[in-house]
Fold this protein.
Amino acid sequence: MDNKKILPSLVCGFGAAVISTVPGVKNIGCCLIVPAAALISLFLDEKINHADPPIDLKKAVSFGILTGLVAAFFSTFFDLLLTFISHTNDYIDTLPQTESLIKSYNLGPLFDQTLKMLEAMAKQIKANGFSPLYTFMIFISNIFIDIIFGIIGGLLGMSYLNKRKNV
């Protein structure tokens, strides 16, 4: 794959990550912004490379995966950067509700250990602005979610662009 084929996914994935970092928009980032970025990356590829329709399934899925990976990497980076600067994030804000929910179920000693681990992550973030376990968890979570929604966006983009060319 040459640069002309990768560039639309890189640009759109980076753009999706930047937009997904904005508070308030962060909640819909995976569901709307990443699929839209995958669709736009297919559209840009069509314009840059003068690709002949129809777009095949392999190309749509690969653009979705690449856009999702780029979005996951950069959204994790921006989230960690903001956490490092501010020493707080959404995790810190929602931890008390999470603790009360887990305690209300009275699930035993295993979940008591889980609560201790969650509190330790919060203490690390408050003290240093960084937690290795939080970094790992948010990165893996972003990868899975953004790739899945990137593939969905790629498939929707394939359908839309192929229908548009046929009309």
